[in-house]
Amino acid sequence: MRHWLNSGAPWIWMTAGTVSLSLVAVLGLLLLIGWKGLSYFWPAPVYQFEVEGPAYRQVVIGEIYEIQSVPVRQLAEAGRDVSAMSGERVNRYLVKIGNRERVSLDFITLLEPEIKSRALAMDVAVIDRLKNGKFYGYPLAFVEEGKRLPLSEFPFALARADQIRLQIKTLQETEIVQVSQQLDLLHQQERRLGTQPELTQRRETLEREYRQLELQLFALRQQLDDRALLVREMTGETVRLPLDQVLNIWYPNNMSLMDKVAHWGYQVAQFVSEEPREANTEGGVFPAIFGTVLMVLLMSVIVTPLGVLAAIYLHEYAGKNSFTKLIRIAVINLAGVPSIVYGVFGLGFFVYMVGGSIDEIFFSDKLPTPTFGTPGILWSALTLAILTLPVVIVSTEEGLARIPNSVRHGSLALGATQAETLWRIVLPMASPAIMTGLILAVARAAGEVAPLMLVGVVKMAPSLPVDEHFPYLHLERKFMHLGYHIYDVGFQSPNVEAARPLVYATSFLLVTVIVGLNLTAIGIRNHLREKFRALEQ
Question: Which parts pass through the membrane (predicted)?
Answer without folding.
Answer: 12-35, 285-314, 326-352, 372-394, 425-446, 502-524
